[in-house]
Design a protein that fits this description.
There is one protein chain. The chain is mainly beta. The protein folds into two domains: 39 residues, no CATH class; 158 residues, Putative cyclase (Glucose Oxidase, domain 1, 3-Layer(bba) Sandwich). The protein has three helices and 13 strands. The strands form three sheets. It has a nine-stranded mixed β-sheet with strand order 1-13-11-5-7-9-10-4-12, with helices on one face. Strands 2-3 form a two-stranded antiparallel ribbon. Strands 6-8 form a two-stranded parallel ribbon. The radius of gyration is 19 Å and the shape is globular. The model has no long low-confidence stretch (mean pLDDT 95).
Length: 222
């Protein structure tokens, strides 16, 4: 196993059986397809493998939303080019007081081609009942400014990029995904990044006709 490097920062939550990411959605179920003991009859003496099955909704752990998640005919996971998922210049924005992250946070910033990462600190509640109520989010005006600025990707360490207590409206998802900008939700560890200078990566598998899937999100420090 390769030794970890201090220049890489883990930004994903661990997925395990029973994990509740978003209340009301099913938790992952992990079951053995072929146990190590059962596999011994298939291989030479001393050789064994474990083959397991995981059943989960795409919205599990830290995941990426593609345009297909919101729009029929939008780019699905298989259609996303690596150029908009890997080694993106990261710009970190901190939000500590107001729930809604508005346009004023980004006005006048040069954000073209960047991954805008919204650091709210809400990840400290992940997996608890406190994670659900009062979660920070990106406002409609904030999303509009980011699209106009030409950002490549937007991520947040909160329950949702939108206000889930607004009666079902999802303006941030709608605006960003309509512009072809992927959204990464339920990030963690953003406090370990500088405001600028790091690079961000979050890559889902190439699944056709699928809109959302967990990612191993990470940053490379300068």
């Amino acid at each position: 196993m390769l030794a970890p490097t201090s220049r890489l920062v883990e930004l994903s939550h661990e997925i395990s059986a029973g994990l509740v990411t978003y209340p009301g959605l099913p938790a992952p179920v992990i079951t053995p397809h072929l146990s190590r003991a059962e596999s011994r009859s298939h291989y030479a003496a001393g050789t064994e493998f474990a083959l397991d099955t995981i059943t989960m909704i795409g919205n599990t752990g830290t995941y990426l939303d593609s345009p297909f998640h919101r729009y029929q005919g939008g780019a699905d996971l298989a259609a996303l080019p690596l150029e908009i998922l890997v080694d993106l210049p990261a710009r970190l924005f901190h939000q500590s007081f107001e729930r809604g992250i508005g346009a004023e946070a980004f006005t006048g910033q040069d954000l073209a081609g960047t991954a805008v990462l919204l650091h709210t600190g809400w990840d400290r509640h992940f997996g608890t009942s406190a994670y659900v109520a009062g979660a920070p989010f990106l406002t409609e005006a904030g999303a509009q400014v980011l699209v106009a600025a030409g950002v490549t990707l937007v991520g947040i360490d909160s329950l949702n990029i939108d206000d889930t207590e607004s009666g079902g409206t999802r303006p941030a998802h709608s605006i960003l995904l309509a512009a072809g900008i992927p959204v990464v939700e339920h990030l963690t560890g953003l406090g370990g990044l500088p405001d600028r200078g790091a690079s961000f990566s979050a890559v889902p598998p190439r699944v056709r006709d699928f809109g959302t899937f967990p990612v191993r999100a990470y940053a490379r420090l300068p």
